[in-house]
Amino acid sequence: MFSIIVIFVFGSFLVSQAESVFVGAFVMPHGGIALDPRYFNTTNATAKAQAWMVHDAAVQVGKQIQDLKPDIIVLSTPHGIASPEDFVFYLSPKGAGFSDTDNCACLPCCYNLSVVMDTKGTKSLVSTLKFEKENVSYLSAFGPPGSEDVPFPLRWGEVVPLYFTKGTLSYSKVIVLSQPSRRYTDSVQMIPELTHLGKNMFKILDLQTDRAVMIISADLAHTHLKSGPYGFSTAAEPFDKACGAWVTTQDSDKLLVEAASYVNKALSCGFTGLAMLDGMLKASPNHWHSRLYANFHPSYYGMMLASFVPLTQ
């Protein structure tokens, strides 16, 4: 029970419950193909079919999140406004932005999104994590922290996965965590820090009274095609397969050892978020039902949809 519900929890973090309010965790891609495969410019029938399977899986996951009725959505993004060292939380009353699709830019392909963010919960979360010696901070924009008039800017790393949860955003608040930019070069070295942060985040969130979910915004290997911007690597396919095996088996070694052995050549923006999520899952006393909805690379980058929900739910 844990994805979107993190926004309100910190106002009462000393309140403990017999039943967890961490109601689910989800992995969702942020590639524009997921938004609308009609604009995906390919003559490869298999790639086109995979693009639609990714899109349909994203719709299904969005519906599952809506059915959980979370109070808070906590979103981890690898493409946000980032600090070199700290994990940055966005501290603004509102966030707004847009994304476009692959092969169709904004305009005309604009997918706009506005969210209400929980400033009180974010401040409490950052304060508690700092007390636990985590490398966290918050960032405000265009005004006094927590009371800005202008929405915090969001882009594809936040907008694409949240777009599929629009049915919840009329009543759910959002907390955004931006992964540090050192993830580009040091993702494997960060693994102990990421799992430690994930464990502390779960322990804090699990003491709350509001229903929370976690969404990891993540694309997988970016080196599936020679024609792609990052070229081809033989590491791409085994990396994506190891990530899928981690979901289905919940074996940490599939991600933190096997996938980690490929990530420097596979070039995955989502790896650090997945490692953090593994720490969260392993900190829980719950047993999790995991499901892999899709794991494809219709273009040069891999896209995975997955869910983890408590078996007691």
Distance between the termini: 8 Å
Oligomer: single chain
- Structural class, from secondary structure content? alpha/beta
Reading side by side through the largest sheet, how are the strands ordered?
Answer: 6-3-8-2-9-1-11-10
The number of helical elements comes to 8
Q: How many strands, which pairing sense, and closed or not: the largest β-sheet?
A: 8 strands, mixed
Number of strands: 11
Strand content: 15-25%
* Low-confidence spans: 1-18
- Return the string of H and E elements: EHEEEEHEEHEHHEHHHEE
Backbone CA Rg:
18 Å
Mean pLDDT: 91
CA-based shape: globular
Helix proportion: 25-40%
Domain Extradiol ring-cleavage dioxygenase class III enzyme subunit B: 46-297
Organism: Porites lobata
Pfam family, one: LigB
Protein name: Extradiol ring-cleavage dioxygenase class III enzyme subunit B domain-containing protein
Could you characterize what this model shows?
It comes from Porites lobata. It holds the Pfam family LigB. The chain is an alpha/beta fold. 34% of the residues lie in helices and 21% in strands. It has eight helices and eleven strands. The strands form two sheets. The protein has an eight-stranded mixed sheet with strand order 6-3-8-2-9-1-11-10, with helices on both faces. Strands 5-4-7 form a three-stranded mixed sheet, covered by helices on one side. Strand 10 and strand 11 form a beta hairpin.
